[in-house]
């Protein structure tokens, strides 16, 4: 924006005076630039030329007011344009300074942090900062003698808090009379029946479309609580899924073993040798798996290796 | 109206003004009370600045090296992650912890720049929390964090608007409350109701933050002052935060306002509120706009001074 405005100001300053001066001495450029028919009539009578210039003036007068203004006060315009240019340059310089200033401070960091694009340690706010006392710093000055405070260069009067302990207690009493409430501890879906052991006062009825109203709960309360309290190891559901997969894998391995051995019997000797090598390899794998399971620590090994959910399932796929 | 000194006791006087350029304030507030302190930020009315307050209190605490876990309990319309700039990093939530898909420590999103700040979201926007024990989720979470190897100093819970199931869940583990309100009667009535409910639930330590105050309007008596608000609610003031366009900018940038350098009026007010929160302190005076002495010079030169 700023450079564009500079360009505009320059064109105002430099371009307009030129045709004005030339118009008296060299009519050609005017004709060439203004009127096509002027070229054809070029070297005819001077009187006609005068008429042409008059026409041209009329044309110029009819075009936008800026041009007209320039035409009228040419002498002043140069000075005015010059001043305008200087002003705009100053404005641009100020803008540039502000931009640089902002960039140094926070602007670029903000952009990078936005949408989580900043990966390499968000510089702007990662730099160690001396903690200013928010009550006593260059921007906040509290003068207790005069009960005034100066904040961001503005003066404020300090009005002391009037609330007394008694008033506070009175308000509390008022509220306890007005609002009698017991925090619900049981959430039930609207339309469900009240379980026998539940106090109706402690129930909060939740509409079906509420974010809390999950359709079905896969875990019971005790498991959920244990899940929250679990400090290390594999999360329970991941572990359960892992175990289920492991069992299924074993089962399928057994089936493979069985079918391959069946097949082996029907193969020729050479094929038998080859395939027996392969199957013994896979058998070894499956055996090592079973041994692990039989140790009573079916997932502990893999747990230690990959406590993370994703890598866990990956390692399963690899097996 | 925007700020007030934490305490106006002579003992807390700033040190001798021998070096006006260097401000000899303390570098950190003194932590009061056993940790972790579980604080719910609530309001009743929506859109008054609960999430803004939570994000800034948490960031400010973390910058003071007081570890904080910010919990977004707004299951339906969460946006604390946005204000902290962590929206791309929330993959696991408390709902996943309950289901056994991950451990609690895996669901905590640690801020990359503020290492003492962690975020926990209650659930993904479209997933639902189990109804049967959903209300107990945060109680378990707070308890588990308390028992963790490195328990946080603060657990800040961003409460959803209203007083329904989300509110019930959010306040369940809290011991203290920050009640955010704007200086208008609709917000105040809701705030009074919420204060009543909190007191019924045994949360007696309730402090108010008056948000979006415009000193010019207060001066013209077109807006209630923080003192008026306090008179109506009868609760101690934790802070008075002015209306500040920087709040929106910081929201869009995903960087809490209190990290702005140079500070902004609202950021500074929230930082002051953090210090009071840490020290279990309240305001003893509020600032009232009075005579307007043009101080433009200082502002102009501070621009050049950097
Ligand atoms: N001091 C302030 N000055 C200017 N704008 C503010 C201020 N505080 C909050 N806002 C704006 O008000 C809007 C609501 O704020 P915020 O999301 O924090 O409210 P909320 O109470 O969490 O809302 P909800 O009830 O929807 O959760 C935001 O757009 C925020 O930028
Ligand atoms: Mg919110």
TrEMBL record, chain A:
GO terms for biological process: chloroplast fission. The chain crosses the membrane at residues 74-93. Residues 216-237, 250-319 are annotated as: Disordered. Keywords: Membrane, Transmembrane, Transmembrane helix. Residues 250-269, 290-300, 308-319 have a biased composition (Polar residues). Residues 273-289 have a biased composition (Low complexity). GO terms for cellular component: chloroplast inner membrane. It comes from the Eukaryota. The keyword Cell membrane does not apply. This is Uncharacterized protein.
UniProtKB/TrEMBL annotation, chain B:
Coiled coil: none annotated. Residues 12-35 are annotated as: Disordered. Keywords: ATP-binding, Cell cycle, Cell division, Nucleotide-binding, Septation. One of its GO terms (molecular function) is calcium-dependent ATPase activity. Residues 39-256 form the CobQ/CobB/MinD/ParA nucleotide binding domain. InterPro entries: CobQ/CobB/MinD/ParA_Nub-bd_dom, MinD, MinD_FleN, P-loop_NTPase, ParA/MinD_ATPase. It comes from the Eukaryota. ATP binds at residues 45-52. GO terms for biological process: cell division; chloroplast fission; negative regulation of cell division. GO terms for cellular component: chloroplast; cytoplasmic side of plasma membrane; cytosol. SUPFAM superfamilies: P-loop containing nucleoside triphosphate hydrolases. CDD domains: MinD (cd02036). Belongs to the ParA family. MinD subfamily. ATPase required for the correct placement of the division site. This is Putative septum site-determining protein MinD.
